[in-house]
Design goal:
InterPro entries: DUF4156 (IPR025294). This is DUF4156 domain-containing protein. Pfam families: DUF4156. With 110 residues, this protein is α+β, with helices and mostly antiparallel strands. The protein has a single domain, classed as 2-Layer Sandwich (Translation Initiation Factor IF3), CATH 3.30.110. It is built from 2 helices and 6 strands, in the order αββββαββ. The strands form 2 sheets. It has a 4-stranded mixed beta sheet with strand order 1-5-6-2, covered by helices on one side. It has a two-stranded antiparallel sheet with strand order 3-4. The longest helix is centred in the N-terminal third of the chain and has 22 residues. The radius of gyration is 19 Å and the shape is elongated.
């Protein structure tokens, strides 16, 4: 019987980790981040570059990969938070997502 109990606990832990990995967003927007837009590179030609920021988030919980959409959303939120702190109003993606990390360029356009 103790083997069965251990097996049930292990199963519950695995299900919990999957739920966390796929459904939770751990990053919240800071004040001002809602006013920062994401734009394609061809629309920022007349804007002033304020530098770059590299955002990092968890892309895997133990051995379970998190949803690509959730990871991307968190990276964008982190970049918007940094942009708002830096006085930028626009961000442009400058790299693909690799291991939960992505680089953005910050601009002041408006």
């Amino acid at each position: 019987m103790p083997e069965l109990t251990k097996s049930i606990k292990t199963g519950l832990l695995a299900v919990s980790l999957c739920a966390v990995a796929s459904g939770c967003t751990w990053v919240k927007k800071n004040p001002g981040a809602d006013r920062v837009r994401i734009a394609p590179a061809d629309l920022v030609g007349s804007c002033k570059s304020l530098g770059t920021v590299t955002s990092n988030t968890v892309n895997k919980v133990t051995v379970v990969n998190r949803s690509t959409k959730k990871v991307q959303s968190e990276l964008e939120t982190l970049a918007r938070n940094e942009a708002a702190k830096s006085g930028a109003d626009t961000i442009v993606v400058r790299s693909p997502i690799v291991d939960g990390q992505q680089t953005f360029e910050l601009f002041r356009c408006l």
